[in-house]
Amino acid sequence: MTRLRSLNKALIVGTFTAALCGAAMATTTYPDKPIRVVVPYAPGGATDILARMIGKQLSENLGQPVVIENKTGGNTSIAATQVAHADADGYTLLFTNDTTFVLNPALFKSLSYDIDKEFRPVGTVCDLTLGLVVSSATPANSIKELAAYIKADTDKPAYGSFGVGSQAHLMGEMYNQVTDSKVTHAPYRGSSPAVIDVIGGQVLFTFPAMATIQGHLKAGKVKVLALSGEERSPLLPDVPTFTEAGYPELNIGAWYGFLAPAGTPDAVVDKLNRSLSEVLDKPDFRKDLIAQGTIPLKLTPDQFKQRMSVEIERTKKIAEMANISID
Protein backbone atom coordinates (compact mmCIF):
# COMPACT_ATOMS: atom_id res chain seq x y z
CA MET A 1 0.00 0.00 0.00
CA THR A 2 2.85 2.35 0.94
CA ARG A 3 4.60 1.56 -2.33
CA LEU A 4 1.37 2.20 -4.25
CA ARG A 5 1.01 5.60 -2.59
CA SER A 6 4.60 6.42 -3.48
CA LEU A 7 4.01 5.42 -7.09
CA ASN A 8 0.85 7.53 -7.28
CA LYS A 9 2.65 10.49 -5.72
CA ALA A 10 5.53 10.12 -8.16
CA LEU A 11 3.06 9.92 -11.05
CA ILE A 12 1.27 13.08 -9.95
CA VAL A 13 4.54 14.98 -9.44
CA GLY A 14 5.83 13.76 -12.79
CA THR A 15 2.66 14.77 -14.58
CA PHE A 16 2.71 18.21 -12.93
CA THR A 17 6.39 18.69 -13.77
CA ALA A 18 5.80 17.64 -17.37
CA ALA A 19 2.93 20.12 -17.64
CA LEU A 20 5.12 22.92 -16.32
CA CYS A 21 7.91 22.00 -18.70
CA GLY A 22 5.45 21.88 -21.58
CA ALA A 23 4.06 25.30 -20.70
CA ALA A 24 7.59 26.73 -20.36
CA MET A 25 8.60 25.28 -23.71
CA ALA A 26 5.45 26.65 -25.34
CA THR A 27 6.17 30.19 -24.11
CA THR A 28 9.86 30.11 -25.04
CA THR A 29 9.07 29.02 -28.61
CA TYR A 30 6.13 31.42 -28.97
CA PRO A 31 5.09 32.13 -31.61
CA ASP A 32 5.60 29.06 -33.76
CA LYS A 33 2.46 29.42 -35.90
CA PRO A 34 0.29 32.25 -37.31
CA ILE A 35 -1.38 34.67 -34.88
CA ARG A 36 -5.03 35.53 -35.49
CA VAL A 37 -6.13 39.09 -34.69
CA VAL A 38 -9.89 39.60 -34.48
CA VAL A 39 -11.11 43.10 -35.38
CA PRO A 40 -14.71 44.03 -34.45
CA TYR A 41 -15.15 46.39 -37.41
CA ALA A 42 -15.56 46.01 -41.17
CA PRO A 43 -12.59 46.09 -43.57
CA GLY A 44 -11.54 49.57 -44.64
CA GLY A 45 -12.46 51.37 -41.43
CA ALA A 46 -10.00 53.10 -39.12
CA THR A 47 -9.66 50.13 -36.73
CA ASP A 48 -9.12 47.69 -39.58
CA ILE A 49 -6.54 49.93 -41.25
CA LEU A 50 -4.58 50.31 -38.01
CA ALA A 51 -4.80 46.57 -37.31
CA ARG A 52 -3.28 45.75 -40.69
CA MET A 53 -0.57 48.38 -40.27
CA ILE A 54 0.54 47.06 -36.89
CA GLY A 55 -0.07 43.45 -37.89
CA LYS A 56 2.44 43.71 -40.72
CA GLN A 57 5.06 45.12 -38.36
CA LEU A 58 4.41 42.49 -35.67
CA SER A 59 4.69 39.74 -38.26
CA GLU A 60 8.15 40.97 -39.20
CA ASN A 61 9.16 41.25 -35.55
CA LEU A 62 7.82 37.89 -34.41
CA GLY A 63 8.63 35.87 -37.53
CA GLN A 64 5.08 34.54 -38.00
CA PRO A 65 2.09 35.67 -40.11
CA VAL A 66 -0.42 37.91 -38.35
CA VAL A 67 -3.83 37.23 -39.88
CA ILE A 68 -6.59 39.84 -39.52
CA GLU A 69 -10.14 38.52 -39.12
CA ASN A 70 -13.02 40.99 -39.24
CA LYS A 71 -15.96 40.06 -37.00
CA THR A 72 -18.56 42.84 -36.89
CA GLY A 73 -21.78 43.24 -34.94
CA GLY A 74 -23.17 43.76 -31.47
CA ASN A 75 -21.35 47.08 -30.96
CA THR A 76 -18.07 45.07 -30.98
CA SER A 77 -19.42 42.46 -28.53
CA ILE A 78 -19.51 39.58 -31.05
CA ALA A 79 -15.77 39.81 -31.68
CA ALA A 80 -15.02 40.34 -27.99
CA THR A 81 -17.03 37.27 -26.97
CA GLN A 82 -15.29 35.16 -29.61
CA VAL A 83 -11.84 36.12 -28.32
CA ALA A 84 -12.89 35.71 -24.68
CA HIS A 85 -13.76 32.06 -25.40
CA ALA A 86 -10.63 31.34 -27.48
CA ASP A 87 -7.67 29.30 -26.24
CA ALA A 88 -5.48 31.38 -23.92
CA ASP A 89 -2.27 30.63 -25.79
CA GLY A 90 -1.48 33.96 -27.46
CA TYR A 91 -2.59 32.85 -30.92
CA THR A 92 -5.94 34.66 -30.81
CA LEU A 93 -5.95 38.36 -29.94
CA LEU A 94 -8.48 41.17 -30.05
CA PHE A 95 -7.56 44.50 -31.61
CA THR A 96 -10.14 47.13 -30.78
CA ASN A 97 -10.73 50.63 -29.48
CA ASP A 98 -12.20 51.92 -26.24
CA THR A 99 -15.76 51.21 -27.37
CA THR A 100 -15.39 47.57 -26.28
CA PHE A 101 -13.82 48.12 -22.87
CA VAL A 102 -14.87 51.63 -21.82
CA LEU A 103 -18.03 52.80 -23.60
CA ASN A 104 -19.88 49.47 -23.62
CA PRO A 105 -19.36 48.76 -19.89
CA ALA A 106 -20.42 52.30 -19.03
CA LEU A 107 -23.51 52.38 -21.27
CA PHE A 108 -24.91 48.85 -21.54
CA LYS A 109 -26.81 47.31 -18.65
CA SER A 110 -25.41 43.87 -19.51
CA LEU A 111 -22.66 42.50 -21.78
CA SER A 112 -21.91 39.09 -23.27
CA TYR A 113 -18.30 39.32 -22.05
CA ASP A 114 -16.61 40.13 -18.75
CA ILE A 115 -13.73 42.60 -18.91
CA ASP A 116 -12.04 41.59 -15.68
CA LYS A 117 -12.56 37.83 -15.81
CA GLU A 118 -12.18 37.05 -19.52
CA PHE A 119 -9.42 39.35 -20.83
CA ARG A 120 -5.82 40.34 -20.29
CA PRO A 121 -4.59 43.72 -21.59
CA VAL A 122 -1.55 43.27 -23.85
CA GLY A 123 -0.63 46.75 -25.01
CA THR A 124 -1.72 49.92 -26.75
CA VAL A 125 -0.85 51.28 -30.19
CA CYS A 126 -2.16 54.83 -30.37
CA ASP A 127 -4.59 57.48 -29.20
CA LEU A 128 -7.12 58.81 -31.70
CA THR A 129 -7.41 62.58 -31.63
CA LEU A 130 -10.94 64.02 -31.76
CA GLY A 131 -11.64 67.69 -32.37
CA LEU A 132 -14.46 70.18 -31.94
CA VAL A 133 -15.16 71.12 -35.55
CA VAL A 134 -17.35 73.90 -36.93
CA SER A 135 -18.01 75.25 -40.40
CA SER A 136 -15.56 77.87 -41.62
CA ALA A 137 -18.55 80.20 -41.90
CA THR A 138 -19.16 80.04 -38.13
CA PRO A 139 -18.01 83.33 -36.51
CA ALA A 140 -16.19 81.64 -33.64
CA ASN A 141 -12.51 80.75 -33.36
CA SER A 142 -12.45 79.28 -29.86
CA ILE A 143 -14.73 77.30 -27.57
CA LYS A 144 -15.44 80.41 -25.48
CA GLU A 145 -16.40 82.34 -28.60
CA LEU A 146 -18.57 79.42 -29.72
CA ALA A 147 -20.39 79.35 -26.36
CA ALA A 148 -21.02 83.11 -26.59
CA TYR A 149 -22.23 82.75 -30.18
CA ILE A 150 -24.66 79.99 -29.19
CA LYS A 151 -26.12 82.01 -26.31
CA ALA A 152 -26.57 85.07 -28.55
CA ASP A 153 -28.26 83.06 -31.33
CA THR A 154 -32.07 82.87 -31.24
CA ASP A 155 -32.18 79.58 -33.19
CA LYS A 156 -31.87 76.28 -31.35
CA PRO A 157 -28.51 74.82 -32.41
CA ALA A 158 -27.63 71.11 -32.62
CA TYR A 159 -24.42 69.12 -32.55
CA GLY A 160 -23.79 65.94 -34.51
CA SER A 161 -22.41 62.67 -33.14
CA PHE A 162 -21.61 59.34 -34.74
CA GLY A 163 -24.26 57.50 -32.74
CA VAL A 164 -25.91 57.32 -29.33
CA GLY A 165 -23.28 56.53 -26.73
CA SER A 166 -20.36 57.42 -29.01
CA GLN A 167 -17.44 59.56 -27.87
CA ALA A 168 -18.94 62.51 -29.76
CA HIS A 169 -22.24 62.08 -27.90
CA LEU A 170 -20.47 62.12 -24.53
CA MET A 171 -18.37 65.12 -25.59
CA GLY A 172 -21.44 67.03 -26.76
CA GLU A 173 -23.25 66.49 -23.48
CA MET A 174 -20.15 67.44 -21.52
CA TYR A 175 -19.91 70.59 -23.67
CA ASN A 176 -23.45 71.49 -22.61
CA GLN A 177 -22.48 70.94 -18.99
CA VAL A 178 -19.26 72.96 -18.89
CA THR A 179 -20.56 75.87 -21.03
CA ASP A 180 -24.07 75.93 -19.53
CA SER A 181 -25.55 75.41 -23.00
CA LYS A 182 -28.52 73.47 -24.35
CA VAL A 183 -27.32 72.28 -27.74
CA THR A 184 -29.51 69.46 -29.09
CA HIS A 185 -27.98 66.06 -29.88
CA ALA A 186 -28.34 64.84 -33.48
CA PRO A 187 -27.01 61.26 -33.90
CA TYR A 188 -25.66 60.17 -37.29
CA ARG A 189 -24.56 56.84 -38.74
CA GLY A 190 -20.89 57.72 -38.70
CA SER A 191 -18.75 60.83 -38.36
CA SER A 192 -18.52 61.70 -42.07
CA PRO A 193 -22.27 62.47 -42.48
CA ALA A 194 -22.13 64.64 -39.36
CA VAL A 195 -19.21 66.63 -40.81
CA ILE A 196 -21.08 67.10 -44.10
CA ASP A 197 -24.05 68.54 -42.21
CA VAL A 198 -21.75 70.85 -40.23
CA ILE A 199 -20.47 72.21 -43.54
CA GLY A 200 -24.03 72.48 -44.82
CA GLY A 201 -25.27 74.28 -41.71
CA GLN A 202 -27.73 71.59 -40.55
CA VAL A 203 -25.80 71.16 -37.28
CA LEU A 204 -23.43 73.59 -35.62
CA PHE A 205 -20.53 71.35 -34.59
CA THR A 206 -19.32 67.78 -34.20
CA PHE A 207 -16.31 65.87 -32.84
CA PRO A 208 -14.66 63.86 -35.65
CA ALA A 209 -11.26 62.21 -35.91
CA MET A 210 -8.67 64.19 -37.82
CA ALA A 211 -8.48 61.59 -40.60
CA THR A 212 -12.17 62.25 -41.33
CA ILE A 213 -11.74 65.96 -42.03
CA GLN A 214 -8.36 66.21 -43.78
CA GLY A 215 -9.92 66.91 -47.18
CA HIS A 216 -12.38 69.44 -45.76
CA LEU A 217 -9.58 71.23 -43.89
CA LYS A 218 -7.49 71.54 -47.06
CA ALA A 219 -10.54 72.86 -48.90
CA GLY A 220 -11.13 75.46 -46.17
CA LYS A 221 -14.62 74.19 -45.37
CA VAL A 222 -14.14 73.52 -41.64
CA LYS A 223 -12.05 74.73 -38.74
CA VAL A 224 -10.98 72.98 -35.57
CA LEU A 225 -11.38 74.87 -32.30
CA ALA A 226 -9.70 72.37 -29.98
CA LEU A 227 -8.41 68.80 -29.89
CA SER A 228 -8.32 65.90 -27.45
CA GLY A 229 -5.01 64.54 -26.21
CA GLU A 230 -2.30 65.44 -23.75
CA GLU A 231 -0.29 67.28 -26.39
CA ARG A 232 -1.01 69.13 -29.62
CA SER A 233 -1.41 67.13 -32.80
CA PRO A 234 1.55 67.33 -35.19
CA LEU A 235 -1.06 67.63 -37.97
CA LEU A 236 -2.50 70.82 -36.43
CA PRO A 237 0.20 72.34 -34.21
CA ASP A 238 -1.60 75.70 -33.95
CA VAL A 239 -4.79 74.19 -32.52
CA PRO A 240 -4.91 73.98 -28.69
CA THR A 241 -5.88 70.89 -26.74
CA PHE A 242 -9.14 71.02 -24.78
CA THR A 243 -7.08 71.37 -21.61
CA GLU A 244 -5.12 74.30 -23.03
CA ALA A 245 -8.39 75.89 -24.16
CA GLY A 246 -9.68 75.74 -20.58
CA TYR A 247 -12.02 72.75 -20.97
CA PRO A 248 -10.18 69.66 -19.69
CA GLU A 249 -13.52 67.88 -19.14
CA LEU A 250 -13.87 67.63 -22.93
CA ASN A 251 -10.61 65.73 -23.28
CA ILE A 252 -12.25 62.52 -24.48
CA GLY A 253 -10.46 60.66 -27.24
CA ALA A 254 -10.13 57.02 -28.18
CA TRP A 255 -7.32 54.49 -27.85
CA TYR A 256 -6.49 51.40 -29.89
CA GLY A 257 -4.90 48.31 -28.41
CA PHE A 258 -4.55 44.53 -28.10
CA LEU A 259 -6.13 42.23 -25.53
CA ALA A 260 -5.81 38.47 -25.05
CA PRO A 261 -8.05 35.87 -23.39
CA ALA A 262 -7.66 35.59 -19.62
CA GLY A 263 -5.14 32.92 -18.68
CA THR A 264 -2.70 33.79 -21.46
CA PRO A 265 0.79 33.15 -19.97
CA ASP A 266 2.75 36.10 -18.63
CA ALA A 267 5.70 35.27 -20.87
CA VAL A 268 3.51 35.46 -23.97
CA VAL A 269 1.87 38.75 -22.94
CA ASP A 270 5.27 40.23 -22.09
CA LYS A 271 6.73 39.16 -25.43
CA LEU A 272 3.82 40.69 -27.33
CA ASN A 273 4.08 43.92 -25.36
CA ARG A 274 7.84 44.15 -26.01
CA SER A 275 7.27 43.56 -29.70
CA LEU A 276 4.62 46.30 -29.79
CA SER A 277 7.03 48.65 -28.02
CA GLU A 278 9.76 47.91 -30.57
CA VAL A 279 7.38 48.62 -33.46
CA LEU A 280 6.24 51.89 -31.88
CA ASP A 281 9.88 52.98 -31.56
CA LYS A 282 10.33 52.86 -35.34
CA PRO A 283 10.37 56.46 -36.66
CA ASP A 284 8.73 55.56 -39.99
CA PHE A 285 5.91 53.69 -38.30
CA ARG A 286 5.32 56.56 -35.89
CA LYS A 287 5.05 58.92 -38.87
CA ASP A 288 2.50 56.59 -40.46
CA LEU A 289 0.39 56.62 -37.28
CA ILE A 290 0.56 60.40 -37.04
CA ALA A 291 -0.50 60.69 -40.69
CA GLN A 292 -3.62 58.71 -39.74
CA GLY A 293 -4.50 61.39 -37.19
CA THR A 294 -3.35 59.39 -34.18
CA ILE A 295 -0.68 59.75 -31.50
CA PRO A 296 1.57 56.70 -30.82
CA LEU A 297 0.90 55.29 -27.35
CA LYS A 298 3.05 52.79 -25.43
CA LEU A 299 1.56 51.33 -22.25
CA THR A 300 2.48 48.23 -20.27
CA PRO A 301 -0.33 45.72 -19.59
CA ASP A 302 -0.73 47.09 -16.05
CA GLN A 303 -0.82 50.69 -17.25
CA PHE A 304 -3.33 49.72 -19.93
CA LYS A 305 -5.58 48.05 -17.33
CA GLN A 306 -5.38 51.08 -15.05
CA ARG A 307 -6.28 53.46 -17.87
CA MET A 308 -9.36 51.41 -18.76
CA SER A 309 -10.48 51.36 -15.13
CA VAL A 310 -10.18 55.14 -14.79
CA GLU A 311 -11.94 55.80 -18.10
CA ILE A 312 -14.85 53.46 -17.32
CA GLU A 313 -15.60 55.34 -14.10
CA ARG A 314 -15.30 58.70 -15.83
CA THR A 315 -17.56 57.62 -18.69
CA LYS A 316 -20.16 56.24 -16.29
CA LYS A 317 -20.35 59.61 -14.57
CA ILE A 318 -20.78 61.46 -17.87
CA ALA A 319 -23.42 58.96 -19.03
CA GLU A 320 -25.36 59.28 -15.76
CA MET A 321 -25.18 63.08 -15.91
CA ALA A 322 -26.54 63.09 -19.47
CA ASN A 323 -28.97 60.20 -18.86
CA ILE A 324 -27.34 58.12 -21.63
CA SER A 325 -27.87 54.36 -21.52
CA ILE A 326 -28.37 51.53 -24.01
CA ASP A 327 -30.49 48.49 -23.22
The CATH topology name of the largest domain reads D-Maltodextrin-Binding Protein, domain 2
Largest sheet: 6 strands, mixed
Looking across the biggest beta sheet, what order are the strands in?
Answer: 2-1-3-10-4-11
Number of discrete helical segments: 12
Helix/strand/pairing category: alpha/beta
Estimate the strand proportion.
15-25%
Order of H and E elements: HEHEHEHHEEHEHEHEHEEHHEH
**Looking at this structure, what is the CATH superfamily of the largest domain?**
Bordetella uptake gene, domain 1
Helical content (DSSP H or I, runs of 4+): 40-55%
Q: What is the tally of beta strands?
A: 11
- The CA-CA distance between the termini, in Å, is 62 Å
Gyration radius from CA atoms, angstroms: 23 Å
What is the overall pLDDT average? 89
Structural shape: globular
Name of the CATH architecture of the largest domain:
3-Layer(aba) Sandwich
Describe the protein's architecture and organization:
It is a single chain. The protein is an alpha/beta fold. It folds into 2 domains: 34-128 and 253-322, Bordetella uptake gene, domain 1 (D-Maltodextrin-Binding Protein, domain 2); 131-250, Periplasmic binding protein-like II (D-Maltodextrin-Binding Protein, domain 2, 3-Layer(aba) Sandwich), CATH 3.40.190. The chain has helices at residues 2-29, 46-62, 77-84, 98-107, 115-118, 143-152, 167-179, 191-200, 210-218, 266-280, 283-291, 301-322, and strands at 35-39, 66-70, 92-97, 119-128, 131-135, 158-161, 184-187, 205-206, 222-227, 254-261, 294-296. Strand 6, helix 7 (167-179) and strand 7 (184-187) form a beta-alpha-beta unit. Helix 2 crosses helix 10 and helix 4 runs parallel beside helix 12. The longest helix has 28 residues, at 2-29. The model has no long low-confidence stretch (mean pLDDT 89).
